[in-house]
Amino acid sequence: MRVYLAGPEVFLPGALEVAAAKKRICAAHGLEGVFPLDAPPQVPPAECPYWMRIYLGNEAHIRSCGALIANLTPFRGPSADVGTVFELGFMRALGRPVMGYSNAAADFLDRTRGFLGAAARRRADGGWEDAEAMGLEDFGLADNLMIDGGIEAAGGAFERHEATGDRWRDLTAFESCVRRLAALRAG
């Protein structure tokens, strides 16, 4: 089974080394990892702007895969990368298995409160809000309920692991997702 490897690692220096490590883990479990920077199965039209060719290439990758594993480690804030979340939702809408992982083990509420600092405050009802009186999600989940919910509704798993080193290169939780996906495929 081809598995789309969604995540913000594409922005890393050495992104292809991370891709190669993920692909090796997939192969060891009988899966074929497909990284966003791989050549797409359908070449987007040359007249498209560069950013649109990237989008179309990634969409073609997703459509060509039987499942998706998303790196949902917080990216530039307390939540996952929005592009990665879009890709996860796209695959979920196709009705295919999705798995997710985060190398930050804390609940979404705790990360959001930490990000907001003093701007996060208790409401009279005991919940939390930001400086604009917008409520903060408090479900004990890894990220926004639509992310956790989409993964669970697809029969997937959202693995949380507190990385002790480089959170973008720690593949402990990723490998757990690969094992679960391989078992799901075999079962």
Automatic annotation (TrEMBL):
Phylogenetic lineage:
Bacteria, Pseudomonadati, Pseudomonadota, Alphaproteobacteria, Acetobacterales
Q: Which InterPro entries does the annotation name? A: Nucleoside_deoxyribTrfase
* Gene3D superfamilies, per database record: 3.40.50.450
Protein's name according to its UniProt entry: Nucleoside 2-deoxyribosyltransferase
Q: Which organism is it from?
A: Neoroseomonas soli
